[in-house]
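Input record (one chain):
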Amino acid sequence: MKSKMLVAPVSLLAFAVCLRAAMQFWSYSNRLVCIDFYQFWAIGNVVRRPGTADVYEHSERHRLGQLLLQEAQDEVKQTKAETSKRYRSARIRRFLEATSTPWLYSVFGVFQTGNFDRDQDGFQHIVLIGYLLAIGYMCHSLGFSFPATSLAIILFLSFFAPAYSDANVGNISRLQFALLALFLWIQHPRHGEIGNLLAGIVLGNTILLKPNLGLVALMIAGGWIILRQYRRLLFSCSGMVIGALVALGISGAYFGSFKPWVDWLRQLSWVMGGDEQANGNFSLAWVLAEKLDMPVAIPLVVLLCGLPLFLLRRRRESAKILSNEKLFHYSILFVSIGCMASLLGAGLAWLHYFVLIIPSALFLLRSSDTLNPMPLGQAIVPTLTVLSILFIALDPILPFLGITSADPGAAYIVITGSVLIYALLVLEVARAFHENKELTDK
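The corresponding structure, as predicted from the sequence alone:
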């Protein structure tokens, strides 16, 4: 009876603080000058104009940057306003850095109204709502209580530098996380084979929106093969192919040809290499390459993806006893490892990319949602997970060290937290093998 009396006040207090955090983030996002969103919006806007040449070509990006700056200036004069978000963004982005896929520019081109300030505010609001829903769904699906879910939202809203970084520049890391949550919801075993197909379509679209999630697809395919979930594999991969083809088709129609994909692929090695991105690059692969004076991205990705799959292969004989809940947890585990491999193995990782550690963090905390004390042995994983989150969040750590997120030391802090989370995920795979081996022996 006593525990029931405590639930309502705790839940109400947690909800009140959560709501306050969401309102603060909403208000904060309305004041931003989002230079990445400006590029997505601008290229999506100009690509269908007569006279626009190859948007991936250096001189054309310079010309378009100057043209759009002049248009923003004229717009300010016509409205007799002191300034606008579009004008402030255009002044910063005088040269357009067209590094994203044609599919991303097509999406931003199709869904814009032509009014930059209104479109930016709408984008920020939609992404924030999706971000909150994604955290809420992940917590619910992993068995978190309402107070624990509220605390997770507060943590990843109020104290999480990657989320603020994503909002500051108007990039899509929070949107990617929301789409991954949508993928997991649709792929739940209760939705059957059609769910796997539709989830694959979502993931295929998401990967072509920003291909840094390609390793998620690799982990899902490899995981289902090892667990002998061949029908799930077939429908998931078929969906991914369909989703990718749909994205290619729509973007080809929007650009008027498929040549922009070829142009984008030509510059992909430069974009992901990180050679000229030392300031603000939080990539483990880049740090190791600098220290060792040799490229390490490919062998590092092979290690990061191969190690958990190798451990998982040891338990393939007992895959038949997997329940729907276990299968769903494996889906989250594969998504989490794919995200972490992408963050640690890519040659370039901006701070806002680390929003993608959230699935891993929530998965590792899934068994620790209790108001009762737990034995020391059981508390090690959740304690290390929370510590890792605080490292990646940066805001709770940096004031004590007297540095900022632009300091090189911040990258080492984020990388340390990310490596620790990855290591804990690998331990989860190893633990799953031992638990299942005991069941099989019995």
